[in-house]
Input
Amino acid sequence: ELGGNAPFIVFDDADLDAAVAAAIASKYRNTGQTCVCANRLLVQDGVRHPEIYVLIDGELEVRKGDVRISTIDQPGACIGEVGLLMDTPATATVLAATPVTVHVAEDGAELLRTDPEVTFVVARMLAQRLDLVTNFLADLRQQYGGESGSLAVVDTVLANLAQALVHLGHIGEA
Output
């Protein structure tokens, strides 16, 4: 059961160019006025994306599994840079919450290697996200650190996360 709502499924061995073309054709068949137009795009975990997407307009929803992580609606926001920079499959699912327009950089790695201005914008955006997460984690520790019972796990998880990041060299570098 795929939950209805006209799912369009892309498996990890798919020809991504063909899948994108087919998804667009399906979504806009009869100007989107049929009950079988693709309304849900499902991409199998493990798909690597060489592209970086830049939001022009509209609203995107970022999900990890069934959990909504955030909404992206700021023009210029990048999508796909985390998996690209870490050389991993996509780290989250991004869905169109409204009709969207995006610019696609087909070879995101090449773009970041050759365009310092774009690289700086992506670095600044990632730094802002890291700052938000760091502040959130500090707030959690302040609110729930030292708690007993089921909330005691918060302090343990935060301490383990901080220690893991130190070992990876992500915190405390000059």
Notes: Helices lie at 16-27, 81-86, 108-114, 116-144, 152-168. The radius of gyration is 19 Å.
